[in-house]
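Hypothesis: this fold can be encoded by more than one sequence.
Test: take the structure tokens below, design a sequence, compare later.
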């Protein structure tokens, strides 16, 4: 059965193919990305790419078209903004929620905003290039802190997403067991997250607690965090898997 989302993706793919031009979506969240992956087998065979502004972003734009189809290259319409306090000494401890709340108070639509990465005393925002100048001119306060906002021409991509390696011991590589150990919950609690639609693997909804992740896959657990699966490093004397993950912090 065709859903509105599937029809929309098909419409965009057909437009790119018919006109020989690039077509972009706004930023897609995990649910929308999962719907795209589910619809992909039935879409026109048009080249596509997903990108959020930097490697590791969770919210991404979808682009139909490539240089072979269109005859030219076109970058994603994404701008990176740096937001920082004017006076660090008197600044609040600002969180992702604080920055997002202030942006939404400006009348921003969430689909125009990508990831917000808070790093120590500043934050980086990926947004649609159409609204970058408006945000720079109007976002002057977050919580009780006066801030300035500027275009970051060279975002510190290598530092944006820090991970912390952790090794957990599992009887098997089942995803429910991995989630339970990493996020310190019971196996039963981990299993309840699957039918609730809270588990995504590489942007695709995962409903199988017994799924075996592959090395390099990004596992997102809504409400708990994200991790990159690094695989089994060794076996214990009792035959258990010493499994490595890199947790986004």
């Amino acid at each position: 059965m065709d859903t509105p989302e599937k029809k929309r993706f098909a419409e965009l793919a057909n437009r790119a193919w018919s006109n020989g031009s690039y077509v972009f979506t706004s930023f897609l969240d995990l649910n929308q990305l999962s719907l795209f992956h589910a619809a992909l087998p039935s879409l026109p065979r048009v080249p596509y790419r997903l990108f959020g502004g930097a490697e590791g972003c969770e919210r991404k734009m979808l682009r139909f078209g490539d240089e072979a189809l269109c005859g030219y290259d076109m970058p994603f319409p994404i701008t990176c903004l740096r937001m920082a306090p004017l006076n660090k000494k008197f600044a609040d401890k600002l969180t992702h929620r604080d920055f997002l709340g202030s942006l939404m108070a400006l009348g921003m639509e969430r689909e125009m905003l990508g990831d917000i990465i808070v790093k120590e005393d500043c934050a980086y925002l990926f947004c649609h290039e159409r609204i970058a100048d408006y945000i720079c001119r109007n976002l002057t306060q977050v919580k009780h802190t006066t801030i300035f906002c500027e275009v970051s021409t060279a975002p510190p991509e290598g530092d944006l997403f820090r991970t912390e390696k952790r090794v957990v011991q599992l009887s098997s590589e089942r995803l429910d067991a991995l989630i339970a150990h990493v996020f310190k919950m019971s196996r039963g609690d981990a299993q309840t997250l699957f039918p609730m639609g809270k588990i995504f693997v590489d942007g695709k909804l995962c409903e199988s607690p017994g799924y075996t992740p592959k090395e390099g896959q990004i596992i997102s657990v809504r409400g708990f965090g994200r991790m990159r699966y690094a695989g089994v490093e060794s076996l214990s004397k009792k035959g258990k898997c010493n499994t490595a993950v890199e947790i986004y912090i």
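DSSP finds eight helices and 14 strands in the chain. The chain has a mean pLDDT of 93.
Hypothesis status: open.
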